[in-house]
């Protein structure tokens, strides 16, 4: 049942990505999305299908669709899960028509909570490009701390850009409401 929420929330639900969602995922070709996530090459339907079959359906990541009032608005995932170190990297994107509505923050809070409460993670990392100020604000609003910078790490729009690394430890997450 494609509409079943895996992680229901007040503002958004997070549900598994299904093959029927591939048309929505194809929006990654929108420059407002690919630029922010550093995917500077177009993705065709065959590549999207391959991503679905090899990444989404694989066991090494957690990939979820962000849904607001039954409408897909973006994706969120844990990538690079290191079970021994109990850490994962979070990544997300929101469709441009749904920016500035709090969906990214709500989804990030929900997935981070799941990571600490259910997966036993100790730390969640995130990478953000220096020009993506909205994503930096999102991470900081959820409690992430900027930990470092990788200089000139990504080539977008004809120039190199820095990548900021953010991190959130489990005890920081749990103490945020105290």
UniProtKB/TrEMBL annotation:
Which is an annotated GO molecular function term of this record?
protein N-terminal-serine acetyltransferase activity
Q: Which organism is it from?
A: Natronorubrum daqingense
Q: Which InterPro entries match?
A: Acyl_CoA_acyltransferase (IPR016181), GNAT_dom (IPR000182), Ribosomal_N-acetyltransferase (IPR051908)
Q: Provide this UniProt record's keywords sorted from A to Z.
A: Transferase
Keyword 4Fe-4S set for record: no
The family database entries (PROSITE patterns) matched by this protein are listed as: GNAT (PS51186)
Which stretches make up the N-acetyltransferase domain?
Answer: 12-171
Name of the protein: GNAT family N-acetyltransferase
